[in-house]
Predict the structure.
Amino acid sequence: MLDTFIYLSLIIVIALGISFIMRALKQPLIIAYILTGIVISPFFLSAIGESETILNFSHFGVAFLLFIVGLHLNPRVIKEVGFTSLIIGSIQIIFTAAASFALSFYLLNFALLPSLYICFALTFSSTIIITKILSDKRDLDSLYGKITVGILILQDLVVIALLILLSYFSQGTGGAIPTNNIIYAGASILGLFLASIFVLPSITKFIAKNQELLFLFAIGWCFLLASLFFQLGFSMEIGALLAGMSLAISPYHTEISAKVKPLRDFFLIIFFILLGLQIDLSNLSNILQIAIILSIFVILFKLFIVLISMGIAGHKRRTSFFSAISLGQISEFSFIIVALGVTLGHILPEISSIIVLTGLITIASSTYLMDYLPQIYNILSKPLKFFERKNAKEDKIPKKEFDLLLLGYNRIGFSILKSFKKLRKKYLVVDFNPETVKYLKSEGIPCIYGDAEDTEFLRDLNISSAELIISTIPELEGGLLLLDKVRKRSKKTTVILTSHNIDDTFEFYKQGADYVIMPHFLGGEYTAKLIETLNTDRENYKQEREKQIQTLRKRKQIGHEHPSVEKNHS
């Protein structure tokens, strides 16, 4: 036991050091964990292989991951996918699976069963990594962000069905589970469904009064069902998934997920490190060659099939390209699928090694590609026109003139638009959230869908006629691009930008911005002026309070929320 603890301590310290390097390189930490396994494998492989405790830790990580996935699979998920994402996602899944199977079976000469596992592993993309990147880039509400997330949700649903199908086979033998066990499992699922509607909501409501009790209940419920389904011959991970799904309609599912997440992260670290440990370094050159071939296929084929399907659906090439690049990696579920295949005896560890290396290459590549999406698109814009229909359904850019232009109707833009209305001049609002554009149109506000970082969009937009342009998007590159386009067309236009960084603000002023909004500083300045005007008498604040309450109610209807953290929000 002491040896296991020492080994685990050393592994975590090494993982920490490699994680610092990956963080500096702006790479997801999942890469650091797998690399840790590869780095330490010559020294720890035999010791880790004999440690049942550490191996069990990795199973806990997968179980907790599926438990949290299940917590978010309530009925509204189907609605969130959207018709466009459903069609495009289905096309992507079917064609990628078919093409990857053909590549594995006919060109790389793998046997039938390994080819099936490879095609499953290559088909899906990483929900955890991509949603994190989209959130950091503030692109979750953009059109391409919504389509991408919708496709990822559909992929997760298919993966879950696939894992349930794989768990039908008994562990290590490849034989089918006895019919009685399947009947018991079916009865258990039916019972869970009824309990999730009639029993669990009342239990969680009572338990949620005590946060420690809620945490203990979540862990206990997850372990209970994982153990039950394991005893019935299914994998414990499927039991954990069903445990999460049974709590999905609870109003406390988000809180439960937040409390379990640190445990999940710790055990998943061990799982990914073990994946790296299991790579056969003696045969590295051979499996690396195959992994490179598969990685090129994943990046290019997913790009091609998504571009075609989104182009047929009527989307512009920029939206199609951004979505396609975002999906250009394999999923964390791919690792789970091949690990399960090795456990079941369906495939050799060599296949798992190939998929792990493919994951490292594709995740690292897509992360860098997503960091430079606008720049890459500007280079490839002309050849990408091939994938765009002439009657693309996204909004046409108006040719008429306007005096005032607002780029980004968000928490800041809400107040700016009220000032625009008071000026009684022609104005236009541009936003990249299709739901926001839909709302503005319903209110009779002149608006179009567009992205301020799209050079073609800015070129076609008639910005030379504007007297005042305000951008609420706090991006250095986007702000500098806007300044460059405006100043080349008009020296008289007043340009106001937004920044969350003092150095970025100085750079904006250096390049010719007339004013830079810094929201977090302006809030303090406004409060200071309010204090100077109203003094300390509570009666003086009543009118201001009522005005704020009315404004907040309006914002609440629109869907505005104050950011929970300070960075990267406007």
Remarks:
- Strands lie at 404-407, 427-431, 447-449, 468-471, 494-498, 515-517.
- The radius of gyration is 27 Å.
